[in-house]
Amino acid sequence: METSLLAAVHAAANPETAPAAPPAPAMASAQAIEAARAEGHKAGLAAGASAERARGKAILGSDAAKSRRELAEHLAFETELSVEAAAAILVKAPEEAKGARLDGRVPNPNIAPDAAPAADKNNDPAERLMGALDRVAGKAA
After folding, report:
1. Which residues contact 135 (CB under 8 A, 6 or more apart)?
2. CA distance 116 to 21
3. SS3 at position 19
4. Predicted pLDDT of residue 132
5. Which of 29, 42, 83, 91 is the most core-located residue (most Cβ within 10 A)?
6. DSSP class of residue 136?
7. Is the pLDDT of residue 29 over 90?
8. Where is this region: Disordered (predicted)?
């Protein structure tokens, strides 16, 4: 330790005899560093996408999500909640209705037309106008 301290003091006192600083990284080293960064970034994106797919699959595949599909999809795709937090929310949420609000409560009236409607002169605008004029004039229709 004493030797390195003396060497540091000597180098500070005599800069011309101090050892040269290590050379700057060569161009090949800089390119290797950039390639490693790009590779790491690509691997990170792939890992993140894989983790996000696994998270969504776990949320949508939970038992509570089966009867709360719309909420489960929202939690999986629109939030960053953990699987455990999303599952806790789904368990506490009310189940979605099976269909329309009155499904199963109102019987189907099974209404069907009997026959094609007969031609009605009252549907013709000219006939309706003439009938109105007759009524105003006091004529029997």
Report:
1. 141
2. 102
3. coil
4. 83
5. 83
6. H
7. no
8. 13-56, 97-127
